[in-house]
Amino acid sequence: MSILQTSNLKKIYGSGDTAVHALDGVSFSVDKGEFVAIVGTSGSGKSTLLHMLGGLDRPTSGSVTVDGQKLFSLKEDDLTVFRRRKIGFVFQNYNLVPVLNVYENILLPIQLDGNTPDADYIKSIVETLGLGSKLKNLASNLSGGQQQRVAIARALSTKPAIILADEPTGNLDSKTSLDVLKLLKMTSEKYSQTIVIITHDEQLAQMADRIVRIEDGRIVSQ
Question: What percent of the chain has pLDDT over 70?
């Protein structure tokens, strides 16, 4: 069953002779529980695509459907709530709140929604990602690899329909990058979690169930 679909997705910056087609008719789908890597060179459109998939930017035309909901039919406030509940994000720069400790960072999206955390599920995530001894540490005092583990735990915490990871290993050394990708793969399998990652690293992309290649704003293979 598809959890994510895009249909003829286009994003054009500028107009006339100076128009840049960042996305030029992208259509693809991701099944529930699938771990997909989107690869492409710098400027290929992969980060633009991820922003569209997460509802962080609106396309010029086309549609994105997540868990049965067309994102861009929602008003901005409703889209923000849907994003918080249904889409988990893992960014290259971690985007943790430095003045909060690890546990507070993990629970943040749940508390913003006014919900009560599933204690057993959160404990399972913490143990899976090896964060048990770090829960009271401030996020700002952790290594890059540890911060990315916290970001993954935070993304998983709401049991989202899909997790989108934008160059999640971009700031990490090769060994830590491999460790983080192994953790993403493991969480995808353990929690039947759908994950889409953007990466330029062909070696890391090989760990995914499927690779989608994008060039000049178009999908060239999947």
Answer: 100
Rounded distance between C-alpha atoms, residue 8 and residue 25, angstroms: 4
Mean residue pLDDT across the chain = 93
DSSP notation for 22-52 = EEEEEEEEEETT-EEEEE--TTSSHHHHHHH
Strands 61-66 and 69-70: antiparallel
Q: What is the pLDDT of residues 136-181, one digit of tens each?
A: 999 989 999 999 999 999 999 999 999 999 989 888 888 888 898 8
Q: How far is CA 83 from CA 25, 71, 158, 159, in A?
A: 23, 9, 11, 12
DSSP letter string, 68-81: TEEGGGS-HHHHHH
Core vs surface per residue 57-72: b (16+ CB within 10 A) or e: eebeebbbbbbeeebe
CATH class of 2-96+160-221: alpha beta
Please state at what angle helix 174-190 crosses helix 119-128, rounded to 10 degrees. Answer: 140
- Could you tell me if 94 and 150 are in contact, meaning their C-beta atoms sit under 8 angstroms apart? yes
For residues 195 and 54, is the Cβ–Cβ distance under 8 A?
Answer: no
Distance CA 212, CA 190 (A): 23
CA distance 117 to 109: 10
Model pLDDT, residue 16: 85
Strands 87-91, 162-166: pairing is parallel
